[in-house]
């Protein structure tokens, strides 16, 4: 009789626990996530969708997004609920105002180190000439960086025309007086052409010097060294002059990290504390993301394929973002794929 009562009590407690867990999960409800139109953002959006659905019982749906329209819609309309990867400097004033008006909440860093920009040289070249880690070293070896068209000039590969980084790269080219040292600022014409110039240099083990950014598939495939200007990052100078087309007297400054955060609407922030905690923990280093983007490019993978690869092959990374029970739910769902 005692055993029967104990068994009944155990079953009752177990059922209550499951009902409580289901109740907690059901609080998440319907959720919309911005699926931005670049590789790292669509990867993170698919990861979040899968985890929210299977670890927290959400009904997560991906909706098309891009930085400016998504930011504006979240502030003005309260939708989508989540922007998994938002480069905040793109509309800093509006985002800051949305936060101050309690319409938006920054819950965590998508990229723990922020987006990275700089002037780069190949690692194999630095192995031969260690001084190339600094801009002074580059200026001492201008003859290494032969121009594809002009024998009397050295090549610096800038940012493609029409991109925001064309302004900053051009201003820093002037600030560092690279033209006076014999460098010609080359417009690669497109992002593909710029990455292609790095790939060709690497295949031939030739010198290369120019602008690039992370996280990218290119920096996941090819080991590059960021050139130190010897002046640190002056954020005020960068925002007020380096990034401005009408900057007349730019000064040398390293690129400050670009904040890359996870934004949610204020309504969603109060909807599911457990899901919010996950989003606050979910973060990638640039090296991790570089490698994932390189895998995506090599395998011609979309966000869904890359999500499955990441969750199956990098469990040691993502399980720290969840409780044991939540991680088990994700693992069970992965087995059903």
* CATH arch. level architecture of the largest domain: 3-Layer(aba) Sandwich
**Secondary-structure element order, N to C:** HEHEHEHEEHHEHEHEHEHEHHHHHH
Compute the number of helices.
Answer: 16
**What is the terminal separation in angstroms?**
45 Å
Strand order of the largest sheet: 3-10-4
Sequence stretches where pLDDT stays below 50 over 5 or more residues:
1-26
CATH topology of the largest domain: D-Maltodextrin-Binding Protein, domain 2
- CATH H-level superfamily title of the largest domain: Periplasmic binding protein-like II
**For this structure, what is the CATH class of the largest domain?**
Alpha Beta
Largest sheet data: 3 strands, antiparallel
> SS-based structural class?
alpha/beta
Topology, number of strands: 10
Rg over CA atoms: 24 Å
Give helix % range: 40-55%
In short:
The chain is an alpha/beta fold.
List keywords for this structure.
D-Maltodextrin-Binding Protein, domain 2, 3-stranded antiparallel beta sheet, alpha/beta, 10 strands, globular, 337 residues
Can you give a write-up of this model?
The radius of gyration is 24 Å and the shape is globular. Helix 2 crosses helix 16 (324-335). Strands 3-10-4 form a three-stranded antiparallel β-sheet, sandwiched between helices. Strands 8-5-9 form a three-stranded antiparallel β-sheet. It has a two-stranded parallel ribbon with strand order 1-2. The longest helix is centred in the first third of the chain and has 25 residues, at 2-26. The protein has helices spanning 2-26, 39-56, 67-76, 92-100, 123-128, 135-140, 165-175, 191-204, 217-221, 235-242, 266-269, 273-281, 286-298, 303-313, 315-318, 324-335, and strands spanning 30-36, 59-65, 82-87, 104-109, 116-122, 154-157, 183-186, 210-214, 224-226, 260-265. The chain is 49% helix and 16% strand. The chain has two domains: 25-114 and 259-335, D-Maltodextrin-Binding Protein, domain 2 (3-Layer(aba) Sandwich), CATH 3.40.190; 116-242, 3-Layer(aba) Sandwich (D-Maltodextrin-Binding Protein, domain 2), CATH 3.40.190. By secondary structure, it is an alpha/beta fold. It has 16 helices and ten strands.
